[in-house]
Write a structure and sequence with these properties.
Strand order of the largest sheet: 6-7-8-9
Structural class: alpha+beta
Order of helices and strands: EEEEEHEEHHHEHHE
Oligomer: single chain
Distance between the termini: 45 Å
Length: about 200
């Protein structure tokens, strides 16, 4: 079941007085993929949730994010756009960002992804280091304004978790204030074979 023009995939889980009850499954076309890897929205959200905890000691918080699979380089790599806000004073969050913490955020995201991603990244080397691009505060408001101007409903707007539109990518890239890459490949879990 598709929810209007939002692109959510829903599953009917039951009925209440003949009205269907739904469970959110995933968003349409929200799969990052460079090689044989397939990262869905749920896995990405879980990985980002783990990584954003590293911002708390800096008194910063992740307010919004999106992603895209950058295949303009060889090997291609995942790019995450993060909007970060400082929770304390009016100091801009990017001034508080420590590159080692942001690089560790990249590593935590990679370590949280599935085995196929890790194999492609660490063993096959068919995926490059994950990148986090920090954008200016308010960038995701501008992203929403652009999507609404292109016909998205303001009442149903949700930040896209995977960007494919060149125009939206240009907007995000124009607001980048910091770029950070994973400095180490994810550790592959050892697989024990029994005979």
């Amino acid at each position: 079941l598709y929810r209007y023009k939002v692109g959510d995939i829903l599953m009917v889980t039951g009925f209440h007085n003949k009205a269907p009850q739904f469970k959110f499954v995933h968003r349409r076309n929200v799969v990052l993929s460079i090689d044989t890897d397939k990262t869905n929205e749920e896995d990405l959200m879980s990985a980002v949730a783990r990584a954003k905890r590293l911002l708390e000691p800096l008194e910063c918080m992740l307010t919004e994010y999106t992603s895209y699979a950058d295949t303009s380089t060889i090997p291609g790599h995942y790019v995450l756009f993060w909007e970060i806000k400082h929770m304390g004073s009016s100091t801009a969050a990017w001034r508080k960002l420590d590159s080692s913490v942001m690089e560790e955020c990249c590593s935590v995201v990679e370590d949280s992804l599935d085995y196929i991603y890790k194999r492609c990244r660490a063993k096959d080397k068919s995926i490059g280091p994950l990148e986090i691009r920090v954008v200016q505060e308010g960038c995701f408001d501008s992203l929403m304004d652009l999507c609404v101007s292109q016909g998205s409903s303001v009442n149903q707007y949700k930040t896209p978790r995977c960007i494919k539109s060149k125009e939206l990518l240009r907007l995000l890239d124009s607001r980048v204030i910091g770029r950070f890459f994973s400095q180490k490949p994810p550790v592959l879990p050892t697989i024990h074979q029994t005979s």
